[in-house]
């Protein structure tokens, strides 16, 4: 069993800060999305039935349907939901009264007619294969339009280029669901989420990133090749799946759609982008091998953080170091960074707070300065890396669970969300961790009053005297 398995997933405590807990939507976010797509589906079913004269059905697809949706990895990015709209008529797509562009046009028009305070905008012009509507709460719903022949149970996608495209999301879902029993499917879904999060962190551009479908098929087919006995803890399973995927792609770079052998799922990536993806998978495999070979959980967590950044939680470093030194008689570390922390209110710079290796409670909207005070004692060729790891309801609502915070003996951040967060300081020499410090930052829900409050016009200030 991998030494850091409890940091990946804890089957006994769903609220514990694990990698899995940090990359999935909260219950509130999931319920909000569910309410929004359900209401939108009702509207589109009614509106499009009236516009087209056809029977209209809907079907969720993509990561939301597969149970592999992940949290946006950067603040400002959005959750994605795919809601398929199906225009029903018998026969081939060409037997209907409408062409593909006409169907997409009706969907776009009906989205524009949708009235809700939660809507931010309908993207115009629409995407080639779907329309998109954006909602408050950092998520959007993509709405592809299909022809459905109920009798034959066949689906064809309408495109903006006025062409019909072979596409059957239901068949792919049935393939995935039937590939595993319930217990193994749950494990595979977690593995897909890990790889999707890693890919989103590694490839910031959506266009150069491997698609969700490509990752899903690679992970699922690798998992199918594993015997049931080889499914164990999530870190061990991830290592095995990575090894299987890398071996497969070294032998054959083609990844056929399991329900459409004419489609290469890797075909949408340019050759250089696909090369980069495969090389990055090999780097991730190396990280997994090294992490599983570490003797203590802190060192393993540091390795996994190279792949999953701020999403991978750190253990209680001091407690683990104490246990390691007692049981294995190993040196705790070569350098113990001591960090002075100062917070200065942006609203009133006269208000300052300070601490050593911790700070708080402090209000929101403060500049926070971190400085290693004993940097002169660092061994030669040391490199200091800072990482913000946020926790709590507010950070989760804004999908801001952290980020890399730079290198050097100083760092600067800002207080934004209520709760206890951490600035993690790691010191490396020749790539080996020689020191670390977790710095708790406790933030209250209040902001300081402005030093010079905004002056109201005389006629406003006098109103209270009546």
From TrEMBL:
One of its GO terms (molecular function) is GTP binding. GO terms for biological process: defense response to virus; nucleotide metabolic process. This is Cyclic GMP-AMP synthase. Residues 58-146 form the Cyclic GMP-AMP synthase DncV-like nucleotidyltransferase domain. Coiled coil: none annotated. It comes from the Bacteria. CDD domains: NT_2-5OAS_ClassI-CCAase. Residues 335-443 form the Adenylyl/Guanylyl and SMODS C-terminal sensor domain. It catalyses: GTP + ATP = 3',3'-cGAMP + 2 diphosphate. Keywords: Antiviral defense, ATP-binding, GTP-binding, Magnesium, Metal-binding, Nucleotide metabolism, Nucleotide-binding, Nucleotidyltransferase, Transferase. Signal peptide: none annotated.
